[in-house]
Amino acid sequence: MGCAGVLTDALAGAGVKNLSKIPPNKGRGHVIVSGDVADGELGKLAAAVNQALTPHRDQVKPSVSLELFVKLDKALAAAAFKALAAVDGVDAKSSRADLQRGVLAVRLAGGKSVSVAGITSALRQAGLNASVATATAAAQAKPPKKE
Predict the structure, then answer these.
(1) HEC letters along 39-83
(2) What mean pLDDT is predicted for residues 5-19?
(3) Which of 60, 82, 92, 122 is the most buried (most CB within 10 A)?
(4) To the nearest 10°, the Cα dihedral for 76, 83, 122, 37?
(5) The domain 65-141 is classified under which CATH number: 3.40.50.450, 2.30.42.10, 3.30.70.100, 1.25.40.20?
(6) 0.90 cut: is pTM over it?
(7) Hey, where are the domains in the chain?
């Protein structure tokens, strides 16, 4: 079984429903996957992916990030990483920010309980209104109209 199959089984075993197809990528880069986590617990799905015995594990260790959409600049990204460092179950050092797209990729460490609500709450306390909804992100990422 290839990486895609191993990761599909790992996510399904962690309770992810309505999982999108994981395309094979032969150990190169990341893929975006969507699915439903009924209880909102991301820690167990992160542990399942992070520990998955994929065939290309020696080239690229499997990992999972939660993509959140938020208006960002360098200062806000730094504030986000500082806030994420205090959230159990999040690997803030491996998390990434894409300022142009307005995307915060929050790396999930696994092994500890963590939820979308817990992550977004920590970010809100740091002054960031992060969302899993892209429509919100599109509105936030657009510069205000000049009148």
Answers:
(1) CCECHHHHHHHHCCCCCCCCCCCCCEEEEEECCCCHHHHHHHHHH
(2) 89
(3) 122
(4) 100
(5) 3.30.70.100
(6) no
(7) 3-62, 65-141
